[in-house]
Amino acid sequence: MEEAPLKITLAVGGEPIYEQIKAQIRVRILGGELKEGQVMPSIRALAKGLKIGIITAKRAYDDLCAEGFLVSMQGKGVFVNGYDRQAAHDYAAAEFSRRVQSAVGYARENNLFDGEIENILAEIGNECTRN
After folding, report:
1. Are 62 and 21 spatial neighbours (Cβ–Cβ below 8 Å)?
2. By percentage, how much of the chain surpasses pLDDT 70?
3. Contact, 39 vs 26, CB < 8 A?
4. Eight-class DSSP state of 12
5. Structure confidence at residue 17 (pLDDT)
6. What's the rounded Cα separation, in Å, for the pair 104 and 97?
7. pTM greater than the 0.85 cutoff
8. Boundaries of every domain in the chain
9. Residue 14: helix, strand or coil by DSSP?
10. Quick one: three-class SS letters along 16-61?
11. What is the three-class DSSP state of 11?
12. Could you tell me which residue, 21 or 96, shows the higher pLDDT?
């Protein structure tokens, strides 16, 4: 099977590189752009193409394998794994919850009150429904 084309854009600063790679691959799998069974670029090819370290590329692939989005076959390569839509939904909900908890923790550390936090979240929700 043909190797999956990967167009990954990395931003300097902010989120770690391996997290950016994981997020972009995950979105392409969930969106159907990367199909079950497609061969992913080797770790070395990914690292070379993105001009990053092999350890960073390996971390991204290892995490995606642990999450069930990719599967690694010794001596054959890394492939897009079939995924369960409910499992993908559950993963997204858990990740969203983790990120909101982190944001709420930040807000509380900086003396924002529950009412202010709720107003901000409601405003963000309203902005998202308008777009």
Report:
1. no
2. 93
3. no
4. S
5. 95
6. 10
7. no
8. 17-80, 85-130
9. coil
10. CHHHHHHHHHHHHHHCCCCCCCCECCCHHHHHHHHCCCHHHHHHHH
11. coil
12. 21
Residue 111's φ and ψ, nearest 5 degrees, are 65, 30
**Under 8 Å between Cβ of 28 and 66:** no
Identify the pLDDT of residue 96.
86
Q: pLDDT tens digits, residue range 29-58?
A: 888 889 999 999 999 999 999 999 999 999
The residue assigned the tokens 């992913």 is 40
What 41-49 contacts at long range (C-beta under 8 Å, 24+ apart), as own/partner pairs, is 41/3, 41/4, 41/6, 42/77, 42/78, 43/78, 46/6, 46/21, 49/6
Q: What are phi and psi of 123, to 5 degrees?
A: -65, -45
pLDDT of residue 42: 94
Q: Are 22 and 31 in contact (CB under 8 A)?
A: no
Query: Alpha carbon of 38 to those of 6, 77, 78: distances in Å?
Result: 11, 10, 9
Which two structure tokens, joined as six digits, stand for 52?
A: 């990053």
CA-CA-CA-CA torsion sign (46, 50, 54, 57): negative
Name the token pair of 76.
């054959």
State the average pLDDT for the chain. Answer: 88
CATH architecture of 17-80: Orthogonal Bundle (1.10)
